Amino acid sequence: MNQPLRIIVVGMGARAMIYAREALLHPELFLITGVVDVSLNRIRTAQRLFRIPDDHCFTSVDELTAVPRFADAVINGTMDPQHVSTTIPLLRHGYDVLLEKPFAVNQKEADLLLHCAEETGRIVMVCHVLRYAPFYREIQKLLNSGEIGKVIHIHMNEQVSYFHESVSYVRGKYASPELCGSGMLLSKCSHDLDIMAWLMKENLPKTVSSVGSVIQFIPEMAPEHAGTHCLLNCPAERDCIYSAKRLYIENPQRWANNIWHDIGTETPAIEEKIRLLHNKDNPYSRCVYRCGLKIVDHQSILIQFADGATGTFSMNGGASASGRNIHITGTKGEIIGNFESEYFTVHKIAPGSPGGRTSRIIDVSKDQHGNPHGNGDQAIVQDFLSILRGEPCSPCCTTLADSMVGHKLVFLAEASRENSGETRRY
Prior knowledge:
Helix content is 36%, strand content 22%. It is α/β, with parallel strands linked by helices. The protein starts with a strand and ends with a strand.
């Protein structure tokens, strides 16, 4: 038990690399001893970084499971539609799995994976990393303490920034169910609905309804005389907020790095970036209004819980900045906060106080340090290692059955949206 755990990475993409790099910081806890990826370039990168021998490198899960088990567990960072098909053979081969979210793209797949985990007795821990962020951990503690009483309503909202929206959900690989296996609600917001279900604890959902549509990224919203590609034939490019040159060259934001990663060029020079964006076959230079978007750009959900409490969630793509907001109303007070601000406010009913209430601020900035996931990526790896060692895990730890609640909410919400907001029973 004092030896470092041995971990294999299946799908060495950006998310899996974040988890794997923790091995370089904590080699006394775990080592990356194998890699599976369809890209030989990513395999070679992993080999150099983690000193993986040739006979522990594979291009498919079938190849990996054809050899005797040589590690304790697997980090599965494959694309969403591959999560179940790759995890089931790993479980049957004796590996425990840290699985990127969403763990399945439909209810049938989710049920198959849950059945396999129960049948094999293996661990499947889903990467709901936001549970580990101090912002949400402190809110959960406060709710559990009963300080604001019984929850009446919980409202959550995710604003998806215009630059993240354009990179990932309009021009990128998550823009179509054919590409990513699901709609935007699952690929972007399974974090949020998992958080809502987690905060409501054993108070399970009872009914779900949802509406949403594409209202922004359609040809009718394009600037006058707009072309089909920003850098090839668009006279409106200089005035367009979604100009590929403006977003990805002149003012590159965080998500612009995904472009070069997705097209197989990790760190191109400026000249190479411009050349790539001039390529008519590069999806990232397409006009956002002419991409034929097949997923929604905004959606709202209404949930009724078993005890009569309600929850609402809204996702809005194309916002001026990214942001996650939460407002919980209880019988004795309220919690109001914004994840990115790294603090939330607790208001308590107090008839004898000026204004009829007391207020205090809970500041988590010293723990989150502006990290996009509140250091949850690192904390979940530590929790997974604890589980593998048979040690106590944190209150944030999720079993596959726990994760099923938030995922089922998404599946039911999508079914409702596709049927004009028809209410679905949980």
